[in-house]
Amino acid sequence: MAKRALILFAHGARAASWAAPFERLRDLTQARMPDVCVSLAFLEFMTPQLPELVAELVRSGIAQVTVVPVFLGQGGHVLRDLPVMVEQLRGAYPQVAISVVEAAGENAAVLNAICDYCVGALDAP
């Protein structure tokens, strides 16, 4: 069985505290999938950035990488920047299967979960 990795890809920010919810998401995801290497990568401002993380994963023997853009929408970073990075990574590591799924906020289940949270906010103390 090929060694697999799941990369949660977020924008990044100058404030270190910004990453806390993404780190919790990474940890929750890792707990559900102990046989998969779950990592967090950033577009800018924070480390690791996607190219460096993929290089590290490849060195560790990962053969399949799935990138999950943890963005609410498919803006310029997801539509333009990420595809360029992924194509460069595919060229650098042709032995690794690299795939990208839709932005988290574009997924119906994610939108429904956010909707549930918003609706529940009316009854919050």
UniProtKB/TrEMBL annotation:
It holds the Pfam family CbiX. GO terms for molecular function: lyase activity; metal ion binding. Transmembrane segments: none annotated. It comes from the Bacteria. The keyword GTP-binding does not apply. Keywords: Lyase, Metal-binding. This is CbiX/SirB N-terminal domain-containing protein. It comes from Rugamonas brunnea.
